């Protein structure tokens, strides 16, 4: 049985700077987003001021909601839909900006121009008071500084220091993530990010307000990389995977042809594939591969089409 991925404590600025995706293989393999600051993230915990949610998409029978979470370093989009019913209910439960903690999976979507959009697909959302929010921010701050220090230590000691790091109690996953961050983001300014954490430190120390309410405006987060990240190696799909991709595309084409807006609804595709014995997890893995290859796009959340 696969172990549940830990939730990294991160800030919005780290999430929105993370542009290197590592996709697993197999039906239930996890995918990760590698940050420049030493986190390999599948699940994350973020804390800040959560805006009022907005309904997106065109089908009211299959709702999908999006809000923005603002912390002392920036903003990240938080989403929930029919595949996250508990989180969707929690997102809708309190109108207006509120202090909240969100646990969810990171998601990176690349537009046709290569621009990346990072969001958190919520699994759980909890409203908290100001003291509790400061505690969560303090945890994220401590972990962020520890990871930055690890990256700098590895950069200074070279490739033969893993045993020493482990003897000092550094988790193996942290060591690997820090080394990969140095390789994938060779020119990132980590000192600038360290300086940006000073705002979070002032909040934790009570020297400034926690975070201002989220301003009005677009809630998607646009990320433009300073340089293209190196592509991760991935084994070519097997004959079985190719057959599953063909079934996915057949279902998509069938639904597009019958639709009035030229889109196929993701939930309906999943239902059709379930009739052929493919699980929803397998369907999402297929969708990730097809999006990566540019065969399918999702211009509206939950609505798919061929480019």
Word description of this protein:
With 307 residues, the chain is an alpha+beta fold. The chain has two domains: 7-204, OB fold (Dihydrolipoamide Acetyltransferase, E2P) (Beta Barrel); 239-305, Arc Repressor Mutant, subunit A (Orthogonal Bundle), CATH 1.10.10. 38% of the residues lie in helices and 23% in strands. The chain contains nine helices and 13 strands. Strand 7 and strand 8 form a beta hairpin. The longest helix is centred in the middle third of the chain and has 28 residues, at 130-157.
Summarize it.
The protein has helices at 12-16, 85-93, 130-157, 162-167, 172-184, 190-204, 239-258, 266-274, 280-292; strands at 7-9, 20-22, 32-34, 40-41, 43-50, 54-56, 64-71, 74-81, 98-110, 116-127, 264-265, 297-300, 303-305. The protein has 307 residues and is α+β, with helices and mostly antiparallel strands. The two termini are 37 Å apart.
Number of helices: 9
So what's the CATH class of the largest domain?
A: Mainly Beta
Gap from first CA to last CA: 37 Å
User: Can you summarize the main beta sheet?
Assistant: 5 strands, mixed, barrel
> Hey, roughly how much beta strand do the residues contain?
15-25%
- In CATH, the architecture of the largest domain is Beta Barrel
How many beta-strand runs?
A: 13
């Amino acid at each position: 049985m696969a172990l549940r991925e830990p939730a990294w404590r991160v800030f919005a600025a780290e999430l929105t700077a993370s542009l290197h995706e590592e996709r697993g293989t197999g039906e239930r393999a996890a995918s990760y987003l590698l940050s420049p600051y030493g986190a390999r993230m599948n699940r994350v915990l973020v804390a800040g001021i959560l805006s009022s949610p907005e309904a997106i998409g065109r089908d009211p029978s299959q709702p999908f909601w999006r809000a923005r979470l603002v912390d002392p370093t920036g903003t990240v989009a938080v989403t929930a839909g029919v595949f996250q019913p508990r989180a969707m209910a929690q997102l809708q439960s309190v109108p207006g900006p509120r202090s909240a903690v969100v646990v969810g999976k990171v998601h990176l979507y690349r537009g046709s121009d290569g621009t990346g959009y990072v969001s958190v697909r919520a699994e759980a959302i909890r409203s908290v008071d100001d003291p509790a929010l400061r505690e969560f921010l303090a945890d994220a701050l401590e972990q962020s500084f520890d990871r930055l220090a690890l990256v700098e230590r590895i950069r200074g000691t070279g490739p033969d220091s893993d045993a020493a790091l482990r003897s000092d109690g550094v988790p193996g996953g942290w060591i690997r993530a820090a080394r990969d961050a140095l390789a994938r983001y060779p020119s990132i300014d980590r000192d600038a990010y360290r300086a940006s954490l000073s705002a979070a430190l002032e909040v934790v120390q009570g020297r400034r307000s926690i975070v201002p309410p989220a301003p009005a405006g677009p809630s998607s987060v646009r990320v433009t990389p300073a340089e293209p990240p190196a592509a991760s190696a991935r084994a070519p799909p097997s004959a079985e995977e190719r057959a599953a991709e063909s079934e996915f595309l057949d279902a998509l084409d069938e639904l597009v042809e019958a639709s009035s807006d030229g889109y196929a609804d993701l939930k309906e595709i999943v239902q059709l594939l379930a009739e052929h014995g493919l699980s929803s997890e397998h369907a999402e893995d297929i969708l990730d591969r097809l999006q990566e290859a540019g065969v399918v796009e999702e211009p509206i959340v939950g609505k798919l089409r061929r480019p």
